[in-house]
Amino acid sequence: MYAKCGCIEDAETIFKELVRHDKVLWNTIRGFSLHGQGDKALETFQKMKDESNLPDDVTFIGVLFACSHMGLVEEGKQHFNSMSNVYGVTPRDEHYVCMVDILSHAGTFADVESFVEAMKLTTNALVWENVLGACAKHGNVKFGERAAKRLFELKCDTDSTYILLSNIFASKGWWAEAKRIRALMSSHGVKKEPGCSWVEINNKVHVFVLDGAHPHIREIHLKLEELGEKLKLIGYVPQIEHVLHDVPYTEKEEHLNHHSEKLALAFALMSNSHVKMLINQNQIPNLFYESFL
């Protein structure tokens, strides 16, 4: 539970205090992987094997997820092959998706294509969603269009399909194409799920939706401006290339301060600057921040 919630240190403490570790406890590997602790996930996996505990299908989801986040392509392949060859574990859809994620996020799209064909995954929507996300990351227009087309054919035209394809075009400066996809999304009645983040302060949960109403929104923006100035003094340069809108530079920089997780972070820092904070978001894995400002 602690690992799933992102409380990694608490999860580790409890794990170490227990004398006996069953398979359920060893599978905290998955929790480590989900929260960017891939090295700890793989370290725990090695300890599991050293103590003669056999991994199961859940274990390997965590292991492969860790390899994906750490960009360990060859190690990921080895673990995937060992599932059936060494441990007699039959791969499920989740494992195939993890392998596609490993290959696509490394930018090896030729390998992705070969793997998808060999494993007969062409009708698996999750596979193509992962491929499309990786194409957006790497700016691969050709493969991205193919992935989106496959998703449309599979009737999986969620908001992320349109948005990722639009973002691929926008990252290349192809604004007309990006707008065309957004218009297509609108004509099909598909609406974007707004980014939402929440943080618990003094036993109360505070929710942020972009610039949605909050009683302290003005103070929050002032705090973000203050943080931005401090960061610039130590060399931070706003990554405006991630703002995929055809607007002037200053507007792109301002847009970065409107992300819901930044609003949550600024509010948490305003409320208590000497504690650890767990910020949750509805579209990406939990982000763990330790206050140092």
TrEMBL record:
The keyword Repeat appears for this protein: yes
InterPro entries for the chain: DYW_dom, E_motif, PPR_At4g14850-like_plant, PPR_rpt, TPR-like_helical_dom_sf
Keyword Repeat appears in the UniProt entry: yes
Gene3D superfamilies attached to this UniProt entry: Tetratricopeptide repeat domain
Spans through the membrane: none
Entry keyword set: Repeat
Gene Ontology molecular function, alphabetical: RNA binding; zinc ion binding
PANTHER family given in the database record: OS07G0636900 PROTEIN, PENTATRICOPEPTIDE REPEAT-CONTAINING PROTEIN
Family to which this protein belongs: Belongs to the PPR family. PCMP-H subfamily.
Protein name: DYW domain-containing protein
